[in-house]
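Attaching the record inline, Q. Sequence:
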Amino acid sequence: MSNFLLVCGGSIAAILVLLVVTLAISRRVGRVSVIDVAWAIGFALIALVGLALGDGVLWRRVLLAVLTITWAGRLAIHLAVRSRGGGEDPRYERLLENAPPGRRQAEAVRRVFVPQGLAMFVVSLPLQVSASTGDGIPAVVVAGVLVWAAGLTFEAVGDQQLKAFKADENNHGKIMDRGLWAWTRHPNYFGDFAVWLGLYLVAASAWPGVLTAFSPLAMAYFLVVVTGGRLLEKQMADRPGYADYQARTSFFFPRPPK
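Structure, as predicted:
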């Protein structure tokens, strides 16, 4: 743990630079939702900081960097393609709907950019701590990789199923309630949580990585409450059939539909 503070400092610097660049892009394109792509990129940068500045065992730093960048790269590409040529994300429109016109950018910084920057730092603490730790328990590392793989698969399959559903004109105005979306109303968010639970387990294989258990819980809170599930469900509340979908389908953790 001799250079943990160095890794933390490097992570904070990477987050600040990323947010400044993202804010500039946001002002240019007129959309706050570019922060979603930056969200994924931020974790990849932090993993690279841990790999470069950490003095912990090399194999775990490499493993966490590969796992994090694989997840972040897929997510960033998916979000960039999905939002290309579109307008503002309705979640952010709702979040900033009461901001005075001249204060919208400042409110976006206060209510979106700053919270997401803080969340990046807190959620990524397993990566930062693990970058400065020694050998751990191999079985826990294997369990973490398996959970990570399950989460990535769940997220990617859910995203692909929704994309295919929306591409079919016959589904216009309908509620996506098939595939993984029949088991949870937010398979992409649950997949994100499982990915970070797996990364935490890899970090927890060596002391004191186990102390960062609050990080995947913070990710779940952020995905559900801050800019994820709750905002999306407010947006969808008036859609015909959505109340019935809510009644028979789990909100977050997958389970067979009622």
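The chain has a mean pLDDT of 91. The chain has eleven helices and no strands.

More tomorrow.
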